[in-house]
Write a structure and sequence with these properties.
The complex is a heterodimer of chains A (575) and B (163). Chain A has 575 residues and is α+β, with helices and mostly antiparallel strands. In chain A, a hairpin with a 6-residue loop joins strand 17 and strand 18. Chain B is an all-alpha fold. Chain B has a two-stranded antiparallel ribbon with strand order 1-2. In chain B, strand 1 and strand 2 form a beta hairpin. Chain B starts with a helix and ends with a helix. The chains are: A alpha+beta (575), B mainly alpha (163).
Chain lengths: 575, 163
């Protein structure tokens, strides 16, 4: 069948043609429009890369918390961390409740803010004003319970030190604007505030358990002897790591104020003292290492010595000839000066410089002082520095130096950062195999170091440090009682002393060095009013060792070992 | 023919447009989910931080010491509770030690009774020891063992009743 082809003619035909053309025109328009839509849709779907910038991110550095890294101790215990601490502000325009009611409620939540304080804030002209910064979670909850839209809470953070005062001097503190004031916080501010490293904590060499023991014993003895201050340090002589560092009085880093007065300075790193007899270790080691003296040599310590207008006496006078061993063990000033005179100024100076006593320590904090050295080196200075007067160094200088005397002669710069990063579970097995690091320098021969160990051991067994003895452990140590110079005038105050004791244990295989000092201890009945280091600082260190030893699993040794049988104290003969 | 082809082409374009759109939408949903999870992770991390700080605060050595003194009958180890090694715990010579290869935690292995050893030292022939031991047993066992048991029973009872 053929389709019928109908055609109109005349005026009708013209009208239909126009209608048709218009319809086609509209169809074409719509087709083009839909095609464009389709092309656009395909191009969006296929060609345009999916970009996350369309969506809001949580924070530019990917964390809700301001990125300041934690600080942990060598076993991973958190020492400093950032927590949310919102701030409270008031916007008077949005306030719904009457100001008096709000003031009453707020004053009830914060003990340090009174009703009048809040009213003052509410009455002033500014619309938006702060009431309290760094709220605790409890306070935040209480504020939310009030439920007034005018009370605005904004996110902020606070640095928290869970251990409070315990490590104040090492960690330092942040102020209220989270800017570091001192300590590790200030020294490692770059690393700690680096957003890329916010998840990597800084691991200190400090062991919080040892820190507690040191701190507790120091504060106990500070009270006991009514001392102005006390300070101590526990050092690993094989690695140079500081396991505990304490200085009293201290401050609370959570306050955001840092050390306020001169009293609160870090005595171990900032205080430079004439530390007294501890220096005899260096003088004798220098003599032995430079082959100026031998153990069996002896010196006349019968009469006091006059040097540069001062008369120098022995604190424990024997009034006879003393061998080098005896000079050290009985802490004879006269004998030590005579040894120093044999050594000579140049060698002595060079030796002190080699031990790093002439420059600042390399410890990782900014607040450390340079030693105070004699302006010129004459016979008087040679004599006084030999027994630790006329030269003021920080206790850390002395500790690092003595560590080098006993660990085989290597001077290892003390550090606050843990050296061997190994999992805590493996620590016991790995720590004994820690390789000696490359930063150390040989300052005396290992043979001299061995002699020094014996001398130090004997000073505890027979000499001035008897009170530091601990049953089961063989320890070495040297007392140091130094008279303090007057603050305002020349000369020394006989009644004000710095009593210190530096000790190493176990002495046959040195591991820990423990230093403790008391600033101006007062005599008490128990010590017959004596304030010498042997009576004050030595028992303090003894107590610390008796607690640290078992904790760190240092095996005890039996008494009366053969090793020291041939090592007798004999009266010296003329050289 | 051309109509079928055109219809097929339009259908294909429609289907592909639809699938691309749904794929896009699914990706967007996943993206949103990811964002939510990331926010949750951050919140959890924050909470972990709080908990760690709290853990550190609650396990302050000073606090643990105080609590242990109040609640436990334990004291800190003293130096006379430590020994250099297991061997120094016994006065016996010729001891045997055993340990697992991993931790090197040594243990004393049980040995002959000391009285036998001292006997062995004095008398050199082995069969004499056996002989002598049997005689000892015959003599001692009936009386002493009974007494011992009685005594230990008595002691145990006292401990139990707390008298």
């Amino acid at each position: 069948m053929k389709p019928i082809d109908l055609r109109m003619e005349g005026t009708h035909q013209g009208a239909i043609e126009i209608a048709r053309n218009r319809i086609i025109f509209i169809i074409v328009l719509f087709t083009i429009g839909f095609l464009m839509l389709a092309v656009k849709l395909i191009s969006i779907g296929i060609f345009q890369a999916h970009s996350s910038s369309y969506y809001p991110t949580v924070n530019s550095n990917g964390s809700l918390l301001m990125a300041r890294a934690d600080i942990v101790d060598r076993n991973g215990v958190v020492l400093a961390t950032n927590l949310k601490a919102p701030s409270l502000a008031v916007s008077k325009r949005n306030l719904k409740s009457p100001p008096k009611e709000i003031a009453t409620k707020i004053a009830a939540i914060f003990p340090e803010i009174t009703y009048d304080d809040v009213m003052k804030i509410l009455r002033n002209k500014a619309n938006h004003s702060w009431i309290k910064r760094k709220l605790t979670p409890k306070q935040l909850y209480a504020i939310k319970q009030i439920g007034d839209p005018g009370l605005e809470i904004s996110d902020a953070e606070k640095r928290i030190y869970p251990h409070g005062r315990l490590l104040a001097h090492v960690l330092g503190a942040l102020n209220i604007d989270n800017k570091p004031l001192s300590g590790i916080e200030a020294y490692f501010d770059g690393e700690l505030s680096d957003p890329a490293k916010s998840e990597e904590p800084i691991t200190l060499s400090i062991d919080i358990r040892l820190q507690h023991i040191l701190n507790q014993e120091l504060s106990l003895y500070k009270e006991k002897f009514l001392a102005l201050g006390a300070a101590g340090i526990i050092l690993d002589v094989t690695t140079g790591e500081i396991l505990a560092l304490s200085s009293l009085p201290d401050f609370d880093p959570n306050d955001g104020k840092g050390p306020l007065s001169k009293v609160e300075l870090n005595r171990i790193l900032q205080g430079s003292y004439e530390l007294g007899s501890g220096f005899k270790t260096f003088t004798i080691a220098s003599g032995l290492d430079n082959n100026v003296i031998r153990q069996v040599d002896s010196y006349d310590a019968t009469y006091p010595l006059r040097v540069g207008g001062f008369t120098i006496r022995d604190d424990h006078p024997k009034k006879r000839w003393l061998s080098v061993q005896e000079i050290f063990v009985y802490s004879s000033n006269i004998g030590t000066i005579k040894i120093a005179q044999d050594i000579g100024i140049e060698i002595q100076k060079e030796f002190f410089e080699k031990l790093g006593l002439f420059s600042k320590t390399k410890i990782e904090v900014f607040e450390k002082t340079s030693p105070q050295l004699p302006k010129q080196w004459g016979p008087t200075e040679l004599a006084t520095t030999a027994f630790g007067h006329g030269i003021a160094v920080t206790p850390l200088h002395l500790a690092s130096g003595v560590a080098a005397m006993v660990n085989g002669g290597r001077l290892i710069p003390a550090t606050l950062i843990r050296k061997d990063i190994v999992p805590a579970a493996l620590l016991n097995f790995v720590s004994s195999k820690v390789k000696p690091d490359n930063t150390s320098r040989q300052v005396i021969s290992s043979k001299t170091s061995e002699i020094m160990r014996k001398l130090l051991h004997f000073a505890v067994e027979e000499g001035t440090g008897k009170k530091a003895k601990v049953e089961g452990y063989e320890i070495g140590g040297k007392t140091g009682t130094a008279i303090k110079p007057f603050e305002n005038k020349r000369g020394y105050d006989d009644k004000a002393v710095i009593s210190s004791f530096i000790s190493i244990f176990p002495i046959n295989d040195p591991k820990y060095l423990i230093f403790a000092m008391l600033d101006e201890p007062q005599g008490i009945e128990e010590t017959f009013n004596l304030i010498s280091a042997g009576m004050t600082a030595a028992p303090l260190v003894g107590n610390i060792i008796s607690r640290v030893g078992p904790l760190m699993g240092i095996p005890t040794t039996h008494k009366g070992e053969k090793e020291y049988d041939d090592f007798m104290l004999v009266s010296g003969t003329r050289k | 023919m051309i109509k079928i082809f055109a219809a097929f082409a339009i259908l294909t374009v429609m289907i592909s447009i639809g699938s691309v759109y749904s794929l896009k939408q699914a990706t967007y949903n996943l993206e949103e989910k990811k964002r939510d999870i990331r926010a949750k992770i951050l919140m959890d991390r924050e909470e972990i931080k709080v908990l760690k700080a709290e853990m550190s605060y609650l396990s302050r050595p000073e606090r643990l010491e105080r609590l242990s003194r109040r609640h436990l009958v334990l004291a800190a180890t003293t130096t006379n509770q430590l020994a250099q090694d297991v061997g120094s715990l016994t006065i016996r010579d010729n001891i045997q030690l055993a340990s697992r290869p991993v931790d090197n935690f040594q243990l004393l292995l049980p040995r002959q009774k000391p009285f036998l050893k001292s006997f062995l030292k004095n008398k050199k022939s082995a069969h004499l020891v056996k002989f002598d031991q049997s005689i000892n047993r015959e003599k001692e066992v009936p009386t002493s063992k009974e007494n011992f048991n009685l005594k230990s029973l008595y002691v145990n009872n006292i401990i139990k009743t707390g008298n």
